[in-house]
Here is the input.
Amino acid sequence: MISARVARFLSPMWESRYGLSVDTWRILAVINRYGPVSAKEVAARISNDAFHVSRAIDRLVSCPADT
Here is the structure.
């Protein structure tokens, strides 16, 4: 799949520059596109399970913000 190849190519940059994994980047993209959504809805949109998405969201929330 093309999106998987692009993600593999870009993931080292996302990780080093922003500290984000492919999953967390996808979660942010869904939230940006669809606005406030539940973890279950994010999971459905990125074809992942809600538990995994919820854990990734917890990691995002606990990340220190750059100021």
